[in-house]
Design a protein that fits this description.
This is L-threonine aldolase. The protein is an alpha/beta fold and 347 residues long. The protein is 42% helix and 16% strand. It folds into 2 domains: 18-251, Type I PLP-dependent aspartate aminotransferase-like (Major domain) (Aspartate Aminotransferase, domain 2, 3-Layer(aba) Sandwich); 255-346, Aspartate Aminotransferase, domain 1, CATH 3.90.1150. Helix 7 links the parallel strand 5 (134-140) and strand 6.
Length: 347
């Protein structure tokens, strides 16, 4: 077993650096609910500037951001158009049904990225009393279920044009928006201009322990605050964790390119291991998916064997594994992980 566990399960495994911890310890705080926390206010202003939106609200998690956005945009029985791999469908415990009472109409976009034509085809007849009302289009950038694929700006602009022409709002799940911006060299506000609401996560590649910011118009955020209160997301001296988010934006945004390079190195190495299959060009950012092809082996078996030897991976399906690079994993760690995976498959 390795002397230090190399955790490639997710970029949520990052731990606050000493600099981030210092920023948290020294944060000036106040009552967030009374708008008296100066650090939370600094973060709000920073996010509005970054995304080009009128207002923003700091939340405990990205899942809460999605749930709040859907509740604000939709009414009971409305329909959300989203890719079949979307986080709001597969990884939020049925929250869209339980919290917002909405339907979801799935589209099947290549690598989680669907087109304007697919949105057009998915729209319901607005004059029908029988069909659910098309109300919202939700996109995920990057697409987790789509191998970490970045949405091309032109594709998103096309989707937005069709949706808005039909009277629908557009929402972006920005769990890894920073990765998309760094990989494509697209300013965050250019993506944000295509949507009515979006959120930015701090706990993945940016390396903070808690939090996400949801942004939109002033009216949208006013109602989002009400939903935040209703869902139990309101906090008090949250400047302590907002300070971590600010530190992440200052120090960990541009370095995401390093994670993308490490992921490419990992994908190339996995593709050369007998019994595994990885479509290297498909892995654009910091997510690496690969298939277990060795007879008699499953993804779970390989994950367990690697864990025993000090490497953490995640089984996505019976045969598919996901590995995620992040700031707590070095290039040397990737080489060690590849050695472990190769040894396991050769045994």
């Amino acid at each position: 077993m390795q002397n230090r566990f190399i955790d490639l399960y997710s970029d949520t495994k990052t731990k606050p650096s000493s600099g981030m911890r210092k920023a948290m310890a020294e944060a000036e705080v106040g009552d967030e609910q009374k708008f008296e926390d100066p650090t939370v206010e600094r973060l709000r202003q920073r996010v509005c500037e970054l995304l080009g939106k009128e207002d923003a609200v700091f939340l405990p998690s990205g899942t809460m951001a999605n749930q709040i956005a859907i509740r604000v945009h939709c009414r009971l029985g409305d329909e959300v158009i989203a890719d079949r791999t979307a986080h709001i469908i597969n990884a939020e415990s049925g929250g869209t049904a339980a919290n917002a009472g909405v339907m979801i109409r799935t589209v099947d976009g290549p690598n989680g990225v669907f087109t304007a034509e697919q949105v057009q085809a998915a729209l319901r007849d607005p004059n029908s009393r029988n069909a659910p009302r098309s109300r919202l289009v939700s996109v995920e950038n990057t697409s987790n279920g789509g191998f970490g694929t970045v949405w091309p700006l032109a594709t998103l602009q096309g989707v937005s044009k069709v949706a808005r022409a039909a009277g629908l709002a557009v929402h972006m799940d920005g769990a890894r928006l920073a990765n998309a911006c760094v990989k494509s060299s697209t300013p965050a506000r250019d993506y944000a201009a295509c949507v009515d609401s979006l959120w930015l996560d701090y706990t993945k590649g940016l390396g903070a322990p808690v939090g996400a910011s949801l942004a939109g118009s002033k009216d949208f955020i006013k109602e989002a605050w009400r939903q935040k209160q209703m869902l139990g997301g309101s906090m008090r001296q949250s400047g302590i964790i907002a300070a971590a988010a600010l530190y992440a934006l200052d120090h960990n945004w541009d370095r995401l390119a390093e994670d993308h390079d490490k992921a490419h190195h990992l994908a190339q190495g996995i593709a050369n291991i007998a019994g595994l299959e990885c479509d290297v060009p498909r892995m654009q950012t910091n997510l690496v998916f690969f298939e277990v092809k060795k007879p008699g082996w499953t993804a779970a078996r390989l994950v367990d064997a690697c864990r025993e030897r000090g490497v953490g991976l995640g089984a996505s399906t019976a045969t598919r594994i996901r590995a995620v690079t992040h700031l707590d994993v070095s290039r040397a760690d990737i080489d060690t992980a590849l050695e472990v995976i190769n040894d396991v498959m050769a045994a």
